[in-house]
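Can't paste images in this forum, so I'm doing it all in text. The chain is below; anyone willing to post the predicted structure tokens underneath?
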Amino acid sequence: MEKWSLMAITVLLALTVRWTVSLGSYSGAGKPPMYGDYEAQRHWQEVTYNLPIRQWYFNTSDNNLLYWGLDYPPLTAYHSLLCAYIAKLINPDWIALHTSRGYESQPHKLFMRTTVFVADLLIYIPAVIFYCFSLKETSTKKKASICALCILLYPGLILIDHGHFQYPLSLGFALWGVLALSYDWDLLGSVAFCLALNYKQMELYHSLPFFCYLLGKCFKKGLKGKGLVLLIKITGTVVVSFAVCWLPFCTDMEQIMQVLRRLFPIDRGLFEACMFSSPPPRLANIWCSLSVLIKIKNIVSPQTQLKLSFAVTFLSLLPTCIKLTVQPSLRGFKFALVSCALSFFLFSFQVHEKSILLVSVPVCLIINEIPFMATWFLLVSTFSMLPLLLKDGLLLAYAVTTPAFLSLCGASFSILDKTSAEDLQLKPFSLSMKGYVSWFKSFPKIVRSLFLLSVTLMGVLSLVCAAAHPPQRLPDLFPVSVSVISCLHFLLFLVYFNVVILWDSKNSRSQKKIS
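Text version of the structure:
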């Protein structure tokens, strides 16, 4: 009974915060001609309801792909169609072909916000709750509830889903995949991740950890026995899952190729996030940060940009993927989700500032193991989206939810007391460096000082961005500063997570359970 009461209170608090944020502005409100992501989601409902499936991804007189053309996998389209059927019952004008473009009204806003709310309540929130109550580290129900509350009140996801406007379904499905794998339900985990990947192609950020972990399990079980059987079952599950999702588009090869071209528009170049924005948004990855000094777009062709980003991303992923395949463990898998997603965000092709959420959600999964570093990362990830949040009129929501989240994590985990090498999972690394690095004795004090400096810098820059005007000669000074500072943080976090993974001595002990 106590468990269900704590769970209900946690969910109620999370829903209250979400609904409060949703009462504010959204992406592109009252800003023709393109409006924003809110209009994109509404437009996809219009297209999927009024046009036959074969036209959803093609440019026609009824489907102008330059106006928020559908560029997500089939599951997103099916979800849009489902919402469209409900919208049609309430008010057909909301999805009328052509005439509904840019439609804005309070009843429609309530409907759209409710669809996100329901998706969160049905998919994402239950996954978080069940995950936290399944953790061995959260030995009591109270600890599990606190962990779940911290994850559910992460401001970055709330501000983007319920403020900016986005559905949490792909991340929710991915979480169900992680939860299933934690119980050794490998086939269910594979199905859940296939759903995530077929909802948003950005789930490729998480694909290598899923692949390497499951492949490593097959190797450990032996490819001449149980391991081979498991590999065949997983392969069959993935093929069937994709076949079911893509079945309506398998009428001819041109349909499939057109969907793939929409999902991966490589001709746009390295800076995809700049396509529909003026001035262009600043992104906290390595390419946008380097472009402050080196105009990559002007000196490197799109094809070379693609090859360069692929090479750098691949090299940054390789050590973690090899370690996870050779020594598969659930703990290593969760840390690999963070490291690989962060590598994709920093170095890959056509990244959007919202893509940092693909790193942040896996970080939420290890907040109970490294509360200090997880909290720090989640604060920086929210800060990195500040230019987008300001553009959407979400300053007040950002200013309230971010300090509240810091206070909650600080009180729940006593994060400033969790800065030793052992607390940060750096004990094996520190032992290997003993005799070479003398400052490890004062490491906790150094880390705390850096954290306080970082939080102060983010707070001051947030105030400046909100209250001051940049110099006329440097109109992008503030967003560029946010992106560069965030990028430097992310690079340091990438080094940290890779050190934890590569020096992890717990993986070898946990392999016995897998074998």
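The CA atoms of residues 134 and 329 lie 16 Å apart. The first helix runs from residue 2 to 22.
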